[in-house]
Amino acid sequence: MEKLFVSVGLFVCLVCLVKCMRLSQYLFLSFCKTSPSSFLRSMGQWAVITGAGDGIGKAYSFELARHGLNVVLISRTLEKLQAIAEEIERTTGSRVKIIQADFTREDIYDHIEEQLKGLEIGVLVNNVGMLPSLLPSYFLSTPGESQNLIHCNITSVVKMTQLVLKHMESRRRGLILNISSGVALRPWPLYSLYSASKAFVCTFSKALNAEYRDKGIIIQVLTPYSVSTPMTKYLNTRMTKTADEFVKESLKYVTIGAETCGCLAYEIMAVILNLIPSRIFYSSTAQRFLLTRYSDYLKRNISNR
User: Fold this and answer.
1) How far is the C-alpha of 206 from the C-alpha of 225, rounded, in Å?
2) Which is nearest to 184 in space by CA: 165, 167, 174, 198?
3) Sorting pLDDT into bands at 50, 70 and 90, what band is 12?
4) Which residues contact residue 17 at a Cβ distance below 8 angstroms, ignoring those fewer than 6 apart?
5) Fewer CB within 10 A of the end CB, N or C, for the chain?
6) For 16-66, what is each residue's pLDDT tens digit?
7) Contact 30, 38 (CB under 8 A)
8) Is 266 a catalytic residue?
9) Rounded Cα gap, residues 44 and 16, in angstroms
10) Backbone phi, psi, residue 96, to 5°
11) How many domains does the chain fold into?
12) In angstroms, how far is CA 293 from the centroid of its own chain?
């Protein structure tokens, strides 16, 4: 029995040590002024960004162009893409290609593949996604079409990865960033469908990274908590990052491992939330808190932009 307790104690200490080392990496990279430009350019000439018309996707489009990559912008609204493309070309000098596509549909991928032919794609950012409601709600009360969310949050990641990964494999280099969410790190009641769809992105990404990392390809999943974007109604709290802030910091961590929250603040938040025991996290009391006080908190902090 004594040996068992000693073994468990050593295991807990080892886990704590690993977490401390991981946080130390984040602290170093957060305050380090090194630029990932040369690394990103070494992956290939072009970066492809889905959901590039707003928020995180738009921020990645500008930031990757600033690092010297040409960018392919894919989104639903042509007018937004044209305006963003013009600004990127004017401010960065990078080449821009736009593809209009609605990721809630399944019949778009042959067109996208045709448009991507001949491009040396070094970076893919699978960013496009849907959040049925920022406010917590029961599954049967969640607004929107569930099949659209599945196509947008899950099918898009699988299909875009299939299109791009085969060419990265033949060149033996490439970087795929899959944008998931902090609510994917454990099942979140009252965000059930969104949480589950983003959990798929996590599992899929980490499995693929294990399969392809020895072929020179990095596949990393990012699990940020709330970022101030149109999807989150420009939520503004002390812990909320803007899309530009999040993207600039997240690119520092592209070589840190298969999974990252994308910034130091969200890594700390994830550690704290994971300390909450499951019996408390999934209790009816916790759900009542989300439906009442947390909902009121969100409403107070949603921007009227």
Assistant:
1) 19
2) 198
3) very low
4) none
5) N
6) 554 555 555 555 555 565 568 899 999 999 999 999 999 999 999 999 999
7) no
8) no
9) 38
10) -135, 135
11) 1
12) 27
Structure-token pair, residue 199: 């959990």
Structure tokens at 108: 């778009």
- With respect to residue 1, please indicate whether it lies within any of the assigned structural domains: no
Note whether residue 11 is domain-resident: no
Q: Please indicate, yes or no, if residue 69 is contained in any of the structural domains.
A: yes
pLDDT (tens digit per residue) in 94-113: 999 999 999 999 999 999 99
Report the alpha-carbon distance of residue 248 to residue 244 in Å, rounded.
6
Backbone phi, psi, residue 279, to 5°: -65, -25
Q: How many CA atoms lie within 13 A of 84 on its CB side?
A: 29
Instruction: Indicate whether 230 belongs to any domain.
Output: yes
Return the CATH number at 154: 3.40.50.720
The 10s digit of each residue's pLDDT in 221-249 is 999 999 999 999 999 888 899 999 999 99
Q: Which of 26, 60, 191, 194 is catalytic?
A: 194
User: What is the domain range of residue 76?
Assistant: 35-301
